[in-house]
């Protein structure tokens, strides 16, 4: 439904913030340009919403790109059923607050075959509950373009991925045969069944994300901030121990630690870090002195060399 | 700063430890600099980029550790990880030990942040280099100090120049292997400056570098090269200028029309040149209708001005017909509109560019059909333009573009956004060329089909006069003059009238 915007509402009450620095402004402009281009060129765009910090920035940029209009496409959350509880609460709050259309999809095989990261291992679990689920959801919605929050600085195979990343009808990515991408001119021509994944945050780094969240006062899931939380140590990772489905193995003990998360995914596969960072300033300064990358806490990247490229070829975001 | 015992420390077992220094704080006061690195594996390009990332702490310990795992302990002779593996992210590249595609890298210092387009050096990858160069403000050209300038150096410099890059850094690498030979360095820099000048590039900085030892990259190499008192690579990059289209006329390619309700109608797009403020008179192209700007709307506030690069929503004072693909521009200095243009392009796909084929052309948000007629091809070795009827992959060519409907362009020289375009093959939907507008051509009485020429049947004296003019000389391919008697000319015209 189109919304009516009386002239007086054009003056956004949040405008008291100081202007963005030129670096963040340039990144913001580029992302807004990409959002508008995709929305104009494709018939059924959708935005992948994973509830993490990058998704929060992506959502904020989408709202900016189409203001004073509404975000003209739905958000899609692929819910594995193993997300942190606080993530789901946060998601529902955002949808309510910003008047968004949300589509949630969970692979029915998860419940039918009782698939869990504990019993099936991270590789198989990710393949079914994330990659396969995403393909199902994209097919069901007949989406011809899907926005994602991936950044090129995250991982080596992403460094070569285009901003408009072409996918075959079965969602495959062919890294050796990508369309050249020159200037800011994007080729959105596809045949029926084919699709494009669009990455407005391609040129952002992790620090850019945090500084933008701070400058724009973007809400994020509280798990990013340090707090005393119950954890259990497993495979060298500190896992949040609040979900009753987490069964302690022999020798494991639940204890409380002051921790936070640098990235958020499925709780059994996401390691916490010891940190006292309770504010955005703390997080940024921690990041600037960090000696390990953010994906270090992600089990799914560590399965095998080139594992992200392999997942992406198969249709993972 | 000097290289703080880095080499020595690294020679020990602590292979992945960073030099101890203050962490790089993040740039806040300038736009990111986009640069392209040109050179081949043999010149040490991967090592140079790896060194930049390493010494600015853009590589984290777990990434370095995974490098060591992947390279089976293969290290360079300073005990540092094999930087090339850090850069070649695709499995095929790792397996073959080559770079096959453009990769983008990010690092920053306390003054600025940088986006590096890392492209392969060999001739068969000219297309990748053109892609990387399209968005770059500056090119770093790498040569091996022992080998000096190569044919590929000229090729890289030529492509970078064609793509509009006006700032060059020549990194004379492996200077340590010449015993830091000053005369050798100066000879190479002199030769390069001459080459750059012949291409019209004046902003050249030459730096003697050892990427392997980290000299004159981020840290200075004074200890080994007391004779060099110029800047390090990173210092040049920190001070380089980013391209700006603010000096030219206002341009807003319209991406979409925002109509959230009856009371609001805004035109959304990214300012592609100049600036705009409420009250300005603007023209909508191609229709030519005129209106005044009433408001510049963004999420944060109603702004009193917008400049090149800003993503905005423009509100006009009257109902005019504006749709996606139109260009809103300043009245005083409008872009060119027309049906025929001259351009240079780089052919990006194995099929090349075929004469007379109808492609899709996309420029800004405007997409339209175009017929492309190759005219000549650049011989990269010599810099000569040779006649060509078609352009194979990786060729750089001059072409004529003929449109069915009005096209809107600036020259690329004047505006790198409104002067640039891509060609899309309607059969494959693939991007087959990147192009740059050089001039508008006068329309030839509506004849644009391939092989077509205007035939002028003129009385002999008039024909001779016409053929003597400069204008005609420049359009010789387009028209053929036939000398006839005045009576015959009248007869021909009578036939046409019937």
From TrEMBL, chain A:
Domain Phosphoadenosine phosphosulphate reductase: 45-271
Superkingdom assignment: Bacteria
InterPro entries: PAPS_reduct_dom (IPR002500), Rossmann-like_a/b/a_fold (IPR014729), SO4_adenylTrfase_ssu (IPR011784), Sulfate_adenylyltrnsfr_sub2 (IPR050128)
GO BP: any one term: sulfate assimilation
E.C. no: 2.7.7.4
Pfam families for this protein: PAPS_reduct
Region of interest (Disordered), ranges: 295-317
Metabolic or biological pathway: Sulfur metabolism; hydrogen sulfide biosynthesis; sulfite from sulfate: step 1/3
Reactions this protein catalyses: sulfate + ATP + H(+) = adenosine 5'-phosphosulfate + diphosphate
Keyword Aminoacyl-tRNA synthetase: no
An MF annotation (GO) of this entry: ATP binding
Keyword terms: ATP-binding, Nucleotide-binding, Nucleotidyltransferase, Transferase
Family indicated by similarity: Belongs to the PAPS reductase family. CysD subfamily.
Function: With CysN forms the ATP sulfurylase (ATPS) that catalyzes the adenylation of sulfate producing adenosine 5'-phosphosulfate (APS) and diphosphate, the first enzymatic step in sulfur assimilation pathway. APS synthesis involves the formation of a high-energy phosphoric-sulfuric acid anhydride bond driven by GTP hydrolysis by CysN coupled to ATP hydrolysis by CysD.
HAMAP family cross-referenced by the UniProt entry: Sulf_adenylyltr_sub2 (MF_00064)
PANTHER family: SULFATE ADENYLYLTRANSFERASE SUBUNIT 2
Complex and partners: Heterodimer composed of CysD, the smaller subunit, and CysN.
Protein name, UniProt field: Sulfate adenylyltransferase subunit 2
Organism of origin: Sinorhizobium saheli
Gene: cysD
TrEMBL record, chain B:
Catalytic activity, EC: 2.7.7.4
Record Gene3D superfamilies: P-loop containing nucleotide triphosphate hydrolases (3.40.50.300), Translation factors (2.40.30.10)
One GO process term, biological-process aspect: sulfate assimilation
InterPro entries the record matches: CysN_GTP-bd (IPR041757), CysN_II (IPR044138), CysN_NoDQ_III (IPR044139), G_TR_CS (IPR031157), GTP-eEF1A_C (IPR054696), P-loop_NTPase (IPR027417), Small_GTP-bd (IPR005225), SO4_adenylTrfase_lsu (IPR011779)
Gene Ontology molecular function, alphabetical: adenylylsulfate kinase activity; ATP binding; GTP binding; GTPase activity; sulfate adenylyltransferase (ATP) activity
Binding sites annotated in the UniProt record for GTP: 39-46, 118-122, 173-176
Subunit-structure text: Heterodimer composed of CysD, the smaller subunit, and CysN.
NCBIfam families, per the entry: CysN, PRK05124.1, small_GTP
Protein task: APS kinase catalyzes the synthesis of activated sulfate. With CysD forms the ATP sulfurylase (ATPS) that catalyzes the adenylation of sulfate producing adenosine 5'-phosphosulfate (APS) and diphosphate, the first enzymatic step in sulfur assimilation pathway. APS synthesis involves the formation of a high-energy phosphoric-sulfuric acid anhydride bond driven by GTP hydrolysis by CysN coupled to ATP hydrolysis by CysD.
Protein name: Sulfate adenylyltransferase subunit 1
Name of the coding gene: cysN
């Amino acid at each position: 439904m189109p919304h009516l915007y009386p002239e007086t509402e054009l003056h956004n009450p949040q405008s008291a913030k100081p202007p963005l620095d030129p670096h963040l402004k340039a990144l913001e402009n580029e992302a807004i340009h990409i959002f508008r281009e995709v929305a104009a060129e494709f018939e059924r765009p959708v935005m992948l919403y994973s509830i993490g910090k990058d998704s929060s920035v992506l959502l904020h940029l989408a709202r900016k790109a189409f203001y004073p209009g509404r975000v003209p496409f739905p958000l899609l959350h692929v819910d594995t059923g193993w997300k942190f509880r606080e993530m789901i609460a946060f998601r529902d709050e955002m949808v309510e607050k910003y008047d968004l259309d949300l589509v949630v999809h969970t692979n029915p095989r998860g419940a039918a075959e009782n698939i869990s990261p504990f019993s099936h291992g991270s590789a198989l679990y990710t393949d079914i509950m994330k990659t396969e689920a995403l393909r199902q959801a994209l097919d069901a919605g007949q989406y011809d373009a899907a926005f994602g929050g991936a950044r090129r600085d995250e991982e080596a195979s992403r460094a070569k991925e285009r901003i408009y990343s072409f996918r075959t009808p079965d969602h495959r990515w062919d890294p050796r045969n990508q369309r050249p991408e020159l200037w800011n001119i994007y080729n959105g021509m596809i045949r029926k069944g084919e699709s494009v994944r669009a990455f407005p945050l391609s040129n952002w780094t992790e620090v850019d994300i945090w500084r933008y969240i701070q400058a724009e006062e973007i809400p994020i899931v509280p798990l990013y901030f340090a707090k005393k939380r119950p954890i259990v140590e497993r495979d060298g990772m500190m896992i949040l121990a609040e979900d009753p489905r987490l069964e302690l193995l022999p020798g494991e003990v639940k204890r409380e630690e002051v921790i936070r998360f640098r990235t958020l995914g499925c709780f059994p596969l996401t390691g916490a870090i010891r940190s006292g960072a309770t504010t955005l300033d703390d997080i940024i300064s921690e990041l600037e002195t960090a000696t390990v990358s953010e994906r270090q806490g992600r089990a799914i990247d560590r399965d095998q060399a080139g594992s992200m490229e392999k997942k992406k070829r198969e249709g993972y975001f | 700063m000097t290289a703080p015992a880095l080499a020595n420390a690294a020679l020990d077992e602590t292979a992945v430890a960073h030099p101890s220094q203050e962490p790089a704080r993040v740039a806040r006061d300038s736009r990111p600099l986009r640069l392209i690195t040109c050179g081949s594996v043999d010149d040490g390009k991967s090592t140079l980029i790896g060194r930049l990332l390493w010494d600015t702490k853009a590589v984290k310990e777990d990434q370095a550790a995974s490098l060591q795992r992947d390279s089976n302990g293969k290290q360079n002779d300073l005990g540092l990880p094999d930087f090339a593996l850090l850069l070649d992210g695709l499995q095929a590249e790792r397996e073959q030990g080559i770079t096959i595609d453009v990769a983008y890298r990010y690092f920053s210092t306390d003054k600025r942040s940088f986006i590096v387009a890392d492209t392969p050096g060999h001739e068969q990858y000219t297309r990748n280099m053109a892609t990387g160069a399209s968005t770059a403000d500056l090119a770093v050209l790498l040569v091996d100090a022992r080998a000096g300038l190569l044919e590929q150096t000229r090729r890289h410099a030529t492509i970078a120049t064609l793509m509009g890059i006006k700032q060059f850094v020549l990194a004379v690498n492996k200077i340590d292997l010449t015993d830091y030979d000053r005369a050798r360095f100066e000879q190479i820099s002199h030769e390069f400056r001459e080459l750059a000048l012949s291409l019209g590039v004046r902003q050249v900085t030459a730096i003697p570098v050892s990427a392997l030892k980290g000299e004159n990259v981020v840290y200075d190499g004074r200890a080994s090269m007391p004779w060099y008192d110029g800047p390090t690579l990173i210092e040049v990059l920190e001070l380089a200028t980013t391209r700006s289209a603010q000096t030219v006329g206002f341009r807003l390619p319209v991406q979409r029309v925002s109509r959230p309700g009856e009371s609001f109608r805004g035109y959304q797009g990214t300012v592609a040149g100049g600036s705009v403020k409420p009250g300005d008179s603007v023209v909508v192209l191609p229709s030519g209708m005129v209106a005044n700007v009433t408001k510049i709307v963004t999420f944060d506030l109603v702004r009193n001005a917008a400049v090149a690069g800003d993503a905005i929503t423009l509100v006009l004072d009257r109902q005019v017909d504006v749709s996606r693909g139109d260009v809103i521009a300043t009245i005083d200095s409008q872009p060119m509109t027309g049906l025929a243009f001259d351009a240079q392009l780089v052919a990006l796909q194995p099929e090349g560019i075929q004469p007379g084929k109808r492609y899709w052309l996309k420029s800004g948000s405007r997409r339209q059909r175009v017929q492309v007629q190759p005219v000549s091809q650049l011989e990269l070795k010599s810099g000569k333009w040779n006649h060509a009827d078609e352009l194979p992959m990786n060729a750089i060519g001059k072409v004529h573009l003929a449109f069915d409907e009005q096209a809107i362009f600036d020259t690329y020289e004047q505006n790198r956004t409104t002067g640039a375009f891509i060609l899309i093959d309607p059969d494959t939907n693939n991007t087959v060329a990147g192009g740059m507008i050089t001039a508008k051509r006068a329309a030839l009485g509506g004849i644009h089909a391939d092989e077509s020429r205007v035939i002028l049947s003129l009385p002999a004296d008039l024909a001779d006069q016409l053929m003597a003019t400069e204008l005609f000389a420049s359009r010789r391919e387009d028209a053929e003059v036939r000398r006839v008697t005045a009576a015959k000319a009248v007869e021909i015209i009578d036939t046409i009238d019937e």
